[in-house]
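Blackboard transcription, Thursday session:
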Amino acid sequence: VHVLFISEEDDPAAWGRELAARLPDLRFTVWPDAVDVSSVDAALCFSPPPGLLAALPNLRVVQSLAAGLDHLAGDRAPPPGVPVLPMADPGAPTLMAEYMLAAVMRHHRGLDALASAQAAGRWQPLPVRAACERRVGVLGLGRLGLAACTMLQSVGFQVTGWSRSVRDLPGLRTLHGPDGLDRLAGQSDILVCLLPLTPETAGILNARLFRLLPRGAFLVNAGRGGHLVEPDLLRALDSGELAGATLDVFTQEPIAPGHPFWRRADILITPHVAAFPRAETAADVVADALRTAAGRAACQQASLA
Amino acid sequence: VHVLFISEEDDPAAWGRELAARLPDLRFTVWPDAVDVSSVDAALCFSPPPGLLAALPNLRVVQSLAAGLDHLAGDRAPPPGVPVLPMADPGAPTLMAEYMLAAVMRHHRGLDALASAQAAGRWQPLPVRAACERRVGVLGLGRLGLAACTMLQSVGFQVTGWSRSVRDLPGLRTLHGPDGLDRLAGQSDILVCLLPLTPETAGILNARLFRLLPRGAFLVNAGRGGHLVEPDLLRALDSGELAGATLDVFTQEPIAPGHPFWRRADILITPHVAAFPRAETAADVVADALRTAAGRAACQQASLA
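(Written on the board underneath:)
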């Protein structure tokens, strides 16, 4: 199987090594190295250049390097009929849950405010409360959202999950739909977003929602940049509706040099590192997917012969 | 019972309210308000001025507002024979464990390095690993140290605990004594200190220990300021032996204005807020202690009459 690797975010050496150990007949080309486009069977990619996938005439499968598939929309899409597989790294839910724990604990214990006090040379003890006195709302109950809920519950937070349609999950308080979203906001001292980006969820983190949060709440977004209306966040922070935010995803990545987020002490920028797939933990499932696609291709060629 | 409250760190209003609800005959004076020293039965205090406790002729009991008693040593001590009770707030282990979780997760996910990159306007993804790939060493296996061990284990870290003398604790890997300390250091990506301050543990966080840590390790100290040789920490950070530190306690509190810690991006100062006793959770045990002391005093007066 001939795999074309296309990503400026992921490590081609690790992927090439881990896949070669599992696929004896692997051919692995890293874009933009020279490649005979007609020989490419599979693309392993994140945010490929517009038109590139569509120009691969014998593409059998696209393995996304991200769990979401929005980076393959529009003119980045493969030719019609080519299956696109989301990344399902079994290590990803753990990494995401740990990211959320780090971000939520930082807000919970006011480490951002303490760092600002330190920068100003001020010794300023802040009141402390326990996790069991803090309410966390988690938007999105997919694999990653559920992992975050479980982790945050396990250390004592009052967690409520939200999804667009009703979910019945043992041991987790849930809300759903538009009314549930408003109720969730009203009771979220810390609001976490792990939704997929769809037309229905784009811009869901906006001024209207921020006004419903308890005054001084915190926001953590590791869904997609498109969930957040960035100017609304700045206004909510400036007005005190929100006390701080941790953001892993942005409408444009990397963030442009002049972007106002860079200079804010009340926004922590993490550069899309919450939970990227690691070749070490994901290569088994990816190799299986490529093997299946290659087998299907061989089958089709045999039936054509 | 007449209680004299002496602390610049704790909230007298909360303590007065919670104790009054439990002790109908409470008289509660907040130092430095005027007080008839001969009428004081009990002191509820943190770091009282030198000589103050010794000048209370009818003092029956001293209830410390801290778990450690080093703030009552030397000329801050009560008259001989007056019992001194450590604070045993049942809420403290939870607060301390949550502080440690916040500090350890921050180092684990490199949030300090990401904040520095942000301040410099750099979009700089860092490699991520899972908690199960990170070794945390915890110095001190008292009530607070054990709570921290349990919390850190529960979210997946490889935790080893250390104490001066041997401890056998189900479910926790432990080391002890001087040899055990050196072994612990060699395998601690993050080293946490929750020891009591004694002549044997003073200065335990020093250049020799830092050289034994894996290069680029992190330090979290919420024991006492006297555990840390502060100039040794600065040298270990400058040389790269240590990558960062979170400090809740200091040799002098508040830290003096010119102290080098203030300006370090690789040291987070938290102003002794890891786990202070809260009247809401501690008042039951404190009220019991004061009631017992008052009963004993009444008893002695009856036998004298």
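Lecturer's comment: Residues 279-304 of chain B form the longest helix (26 residues).
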